[in-house]
Design goal:
With 366 residues, the protein is an alpha/beta fold. The protein has helices at residues 16-34, 47-53, 59-66, 90-100, 124-127, 167-182, 198-211, 224-233, 245-259, 296-308, 313-328, 345-364; strands at 5-12, 38-42, 70-75, 103-111, 131-137, 145-153, 156-162, 187-192, 218-223, 240-243, 266-271, 275-279. The structure holds nicotinamide-adenine-dinucleotide.
């Protein structure tokens, strides 16, 4: 990475500001060892933006994001905005941002850390060693296809949604999946419903064609129902799971349950423009403002930013190792509690920042 890297920080609502602060804290710790490299600029989004400007994604935030190399987001939403008109809900801010930045692929790693294996919904023996990434197409499919709506015909109402995939939409997300697999264990599982759906038949055809450009990567096709079963039955057999918008939405939440707490899971949304990094969890209004949220997902999202946007693999890996080491010492926020005493959001952030610095310093002096 050369020059200053501009980061748009959008804390959002609920626990968003608390956990995002810990992500920024750890990035500053990286700078302390590797030298100044970031310029952080904060913007409003979601409910916080509605309160201040009456819209969930103000023009000023759009401009901050356009002028940044990456976006770090907390979370949006909360009960106080649930009565707003649909187009003025906090979630609209995030949807608009994803569309504006043309973020067509969402990466959700789900890794089971040895120290937290007992938190999983599955038995430790089954889940130990799980390390997979769901690659979800984010801008196409049934969430966006037309016609859509609720219509009346012959005195009865009907709801319609349409699944559409164009070849180029499948190609670009497939390339991302194969490229990612090359940095991992070189296996892609493409998930569809090609036995029933034409859009899935085209999906499978295109993925098979793209796979020929990556002969060093193994390709497996699975129907979505079979994949849902196998994620529970043998989660360690997956590496990169490539799928469409709807199936990805569901399978990534299933994969999240393998790891234990939702407070651990980061995500990256990538396209041709500024990428967006955010925890998988929401704004958790039930624990907001109490310094008890788990900051790991936000810190791990910052690590993904270093990996995919800054190309600083060494620093990304240092943060991930620091997270694993601190958790291995038994340090926990309340959501991960066993018998041990819980620490606060900021304390866990302090410990991970200190461990990251220690790791980077020791590597530098080698
Ligand atoms: P949620 O993820 O906010 O919370 C679900 C449960 O998990 C809650 O019990 C919460 O306390 C807990 N939790 C979540 N993150 C945690 C963390 N880091 N540490 C400890 N515990 C954590 O989901 P929800 O309750 O369905 O939604 C709350 C609000 O967030 C809603 O307004 C929803 O629309 C919004 N939401 C936003 C996003 C986003 O911004 N990307 C995603 C999902 C939900």
């Amino acid at each position: 990475m050369q020059g200053t890297f501009r980061v748009a920080v959008l804390p959002g609502d609920g626990i968003g500001p608390e956990v995002t602060a810990e992500g920024v804290k750890v990035l500053k710790a990286v700078e302390e060892v590797l030298g100044p490299m970031f310029r952080f600029q904060t913007g409003l989004i979601g409910g916080a933006a509605i309160d201040a400007t009456a819209v969930p994604l103000p023009a000023e935030t759009i401009s901050v994001c356009h002028n940044s190399h990456a976006i770090l987001l907390g979370a949006v939403g909360g009960p106080q905005w649930d009565t707003q008109r649909p187009e003025l809900r906090p979630e609209q801010g995030l949807l608009q941002l994803r569309q504006r930045q043309e973020l067509y692929v969402n990466l959700r790693p789900a890794k089971v850390l040895d120290a937290l294996v007992h938190l999983s919904a599955l038995k430790p023996d089954r889940v130990r060693g799980t390390d997979l990434v769901i690659v979800r197409e984010l801008l196409g499919g049934i969430y966006f296809g037309n016609p859509r709506g609720i219509f009346a015909k012959n005195g009865e109402r009907m709801g319609i949604n349409t699944e559409i995939y164009r070849e180029h939409e499948v190609e670009r997300v497939a390339h991302r999946a194969f490229q990612l697999a090359r940095t991992r264990r070189r296996k892609v599982t493409s998930v569809d419903k090609a036995n029933i759906l034409e859009s899935s038949r085209l999906w499978r055809e295109v993925v098979t064609r793209i796979a020929r450009l990556y002969p060093d990567v193994e390709l497996q096709h699975l129907y979505v129902d079979s994949c849902a079963m196998q994620l529970i039955d043998r989660p360690t057999s997956f590496d990169v799971v490539l799928t469409n918008n709807l199936f990805g939405d569901i399978l990534s939440d299933e994969a999240a349950m393998l790891t234990g707490s939702i407070g651990l899971l980061p995500s990256a949304s990538l396209g041709e423009r500024t990428a967006l990094y955010e925890p998988v969890h929401g704004s958790a209004p039930d624990i907001a403002g109490r310094n008890r949220a788990n900051p790991v997902a936000a810190i791990a999202s910052a690590a993904l930013m270093l990996r995919y946007s800054c190309r600083l693999e060494n620093a990304a890996e240092a943060i991930e190792t620091a997270i694993a080491k601190v958790l291995k010492r038994g340090v926990r926020t309340p959501d991960m509690m066993g018998k041990k005493r819980a620490v606060s959001t900021s304390r866990l952030g302090d410990l991970i920042a200190a461990e990251t610095k220690k790791l980077l310093k020791s590597r530098k002096s080698r």
